[in-house]
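Fold this sequence, please.
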Amino acid sequence: MLQSLKERGWETTFIGWDRTGGLSVPCTGYPNAIDRFLCVRAPAPTESWKIALKLPRYYGQLAKTMSGAGRQDCVILTHLWLLPLAWFLKCHTVYDSAEIYSVDMASYFRGCKKLAQPLWRMLEGALVKRVGGVTAVDSDHGWLQKFFMRANKRVQVVYNFPAIFQDPDQEQIDALECTYRNREVAAFVGGLMKEKGLRVALEAAALVKVRHPNCLFLFMGPMKDDLELVTNIVKSLQIENNVVFRNSLGYSEMLAHIRHARVGLMLLQPVGLYLRLGPRNGRKCIAYMQAGIPVIGPSFGEVGAVIRKEQCGVLVDTSSPLQVANAIMDLLDMPEEAELLGRRGREAFLREYNWESEGEKFAGFIEAVLHPA
């Protein structure tokens, strides 16, 4: 998003919140997107309501940082916590609802999340009236966009698509050929956690291995599950030689790895936030489409609708290891069909599901907020 603004002549400043003491200049993959990186250091917990107790200190330090940052024509508020600033800033403001915060943040309250969610929505709806515009993610039947439009007339859905120029070069791909030679690779990228299907994928690996002993399940991303428990699952299923875990990689490097895969796994589970996502909210799906491999995705809700529309993969009950395993084996057993599905996905990505076209829409929306007709 910042890169798109830079291409239109904007000067950009990024202000990050360092809650743990480990924040450094962000490695975005867009080296020219940020002119200046500033940091507010205020220790605070993550994914807990207790973060609210730390907000006064954070707001105070943020105000000092912003006052020393020079003139601001537009401030993009990237979290619900930041929305109150719209009442005090003298410049144009845009709220970027990069997540479905009213659903996501209700989980901070654990057993009370069903009570907390409508309160978050009411707070967000009241605060968003003050900003000049809202950019939101896709949602099931567009409910999130409709919710914001009841409070603010300027709302733009911005899809989280990768950019075409992030494609790896052939040299990167060829350098990994020996790593994956003679292996039938199933790729799983993104946060490694139960809710995103990590454990289902491990159980599916044990089933696939029976018919395809040289299969390799490639997991790439930060481990967000219980590492000891995951290690024990791998040992109990006897799939040590059929799984490999890699930490997060740069986007192009990650794509170079999954170009060697035969199938991509988007195994979101039918729980919580994932039930509310829209058809263009599956970033994993688009990454696999960009790599030109078929996608196995969820049949529930709308999040897998792109797979159905573009005929670039298979929709299954992603909570069932057996269904996932059968879909993987079908694609491994029918390489020509798998190649066709992957080719359709790649063509759709180049035609429609890329940031090159989406960025123009975003930058145009920001300028419309500053200069309304």
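The radius of gyration is 22 Å. The CA atoms of residues 40 and 84 lie 17 Å apart.
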